[in-house]
Amino acid sequence: MASNSNPDPNSTEEAHKSLRHSLLGPSLLKAGQDRVNQQKVGEIIYNASKGSKFFKHEERRDEQLTKRIEGILKRKKELEALDLSVYVKKVDEQIAALEASRDLSQTIVHVDCDAFYASVEELDRPELKEVPMAVGGGVLTTCNYKAREFGVRSGMAGYIAKQLCPHLIFLPLNFEKYGQKAEEVREVLAKYDPRYEAGSCDEAFLNITKYLEEHPEMTPDTATEQIRAEVFAHAKITVSAGIAPNARLAKIASNQNKPNGQFRIQPTVDAVRTFMSTLPVRKVNGVGRVFERELQAIGINTWGDVHPLRHLLQPLFSEKLASFLLNCHLGLGRTHVHPVDEYERKSIGTESTFSDLRGPDPLRAKLRSTAVELEKDLANAELKGRTVNLKVKLHTYEVYTRQKALGRAICTAEELYNAALPLLAGLEVEFRPLRLRLMGLRMTQLVDANRGPGRLEELFKNAGTAGAGKRKRERDDEGWEVWPEEEFTQMKAASGEQEEDILLLSQHEVVDSDEEEGEETSAAAAAAAEVAVNSKNANAPEQAPEEERWPCPICTRMLPAEDALFNEHVDFCLSRETIKEAVKGSSGPPDPPEKVQQHQQQEKRPRKIYHIPLMP
DNA sequence: TTAGGAAGGACCC
DNA sequence: CCCCAGGGTCCTTCCTAA
Length: 616
Description:
Layout: H1 11-24, H2 38-49, H3 53-80, H4 85-100, E1 108-113, H5 116-124, E2 133-135, E3 142-143, H6 145-148, H7 158-164, E4 169-171, H8 175-192, E5 197-198, E6 203-207, H9 209-214, H10 220-235, E7 239-244, H11 247-256, E8 262-264, H12 269-277, H13 289-297, H14 310-316, H15 319-330, E9 347-358, H16 360-381, E10 383-394, E11 399-410, H17 413-430, E12 435-448, H18 456-464, H19 485-495, H20 523-535, E13 549-551, E14 558-560, H21 563-577
Parallel strand pairs: 2-4, 7-8
Antiparallel strand pairs: 1-6, 1-7, 2-3, 5-6, 9-12, 10-11, 10-12, 13-14
Helix pairs in contact: 1-2, 1-3, 2-7, 3-13, 8-10, 14-15, 16-17, 17-20
The protein binds a DNA duplex through α3, α7, α13, β9 and β11.
Family: Belongs to the DNA polymerase type-Y family.
Region (Disordered): 1-20, 460-479, 581-616
Keywords: DNA damage, DNA repair, DNA replication, DNA-directed DNA polymerase, Magnesium, Metal-binding, Nucleotidyltransferase, Transferase
């Protein structure tokens, strides 16, 4: 929208530019790899992906984003016409407070393995070091530096990589191997900080403050060099590291000198803020493709650019986001690290991609196999879940999820399948011929499999208390001092640092894109009902002898006082809840009359415009 | 009003 | 074999039951 404001002569050109940029991926900024003829690479990638369904989908998303950005710009314009001095003042106070909370006393190190998977493979087959090589199939998980010279990068489609680098060698993933190697690396890290925080197997945070105290002869730099050297000696793996007064900065720093190097950000306000002032926004962890574009649109390219616009952050984005931006601008971040197993897992699931799948039977077969997979994972983790989540990706790459709270924790493939089937059935009706390229199942509301509420009484007892499942992983295998959870949170509270760390962005204020096509979701519930009935003998309890009886908490019907049967019925009722509107009476089998319109009537009502809260 | 369910996304590795 | 994964976390918005 710069020069010519014509309808759409060159607009496609414009659009493709940003798209091309996004296709090029984060590598050009995130990773330190430059010096590649990015023009050429971009061209190749663009041409290679052009016309594919994936590309089409990306285009649609890109258009949406563009629209959203227009909205943001409009609001910005409106805001600038107002007198926002109060805001400036308020934000400045906020900044002062943040600044006052700054803690530069800790020395945090972020250790990051270089092209981890590829490096591990090279250990087994040294000859691979000399040639471009990548790990992964359809999508590259990672690739060695030789391959990167061709513009190949992790996260790239395999066939595109092949075009960039015809001789590229592909290796299959071998997680066993990587896991072992990661363990070797960690053995070294633990010596410097027993409470190191392992990220995803190829990276970790260490707080070496204590270590430095105990080794006065060492500096942060020499200590880190020693860590890296020792890792290399022990695991034959080269790592990069970042040293900084907080985790966020350390993470950024470790990327600064990527292949086998390290970088330190001095623990002074000056050094930190100077560093941030020229740092591209995308370099920070929570800023991805989308947010980067939004920020750039309003004139924020580096973190230094935030300051002049600081008063617009709040009204333009959400509160959380505004706070996040300020924190980054100031170069603040968390100053503690702790073992990941003091962490509660929130969900567990599995998904898989396949070629165009359609038809009731194939889809059900896939659902079944997915359920079987998930059952294994659940068993492995000794977990049950109380909410099923079905995820589906159409052949057009559009993703939809349907979830259902069950009110009871389940874990067997059979249960999973039965719980998810109605969801699938609903989708089948929503999208006439349902054509999928991906299906996934995920459980949330996890509880410990060993003492999950299997009985109804507990169910209702727990219903109120959120997050009833309080199982903690007690892997004492490490043997390190295990801090009680409370103590930990107390400390956190006491230290007064706000934990807005891994803040993730999302569509802050969708300004509304009116491109929905009202689908006829009509028969969905009907089908779901049908399935629910057919799926099992869930409607049996009716004809039971009349001895002791319990009332169903859902439909109030009296039921035989027999655990299995009773639970089964309640399950049925719970699942029926969603479609209860389809059922006229509360008695009798659900014969689907006319269906719920719930989804239809929620139209597009006028969205509330931003509002500026009145300042006192 | 509020809490929690549901759906959609952004982002990370 | 698919010619752009899979495992997770967290944030937002909408909606409804209590």
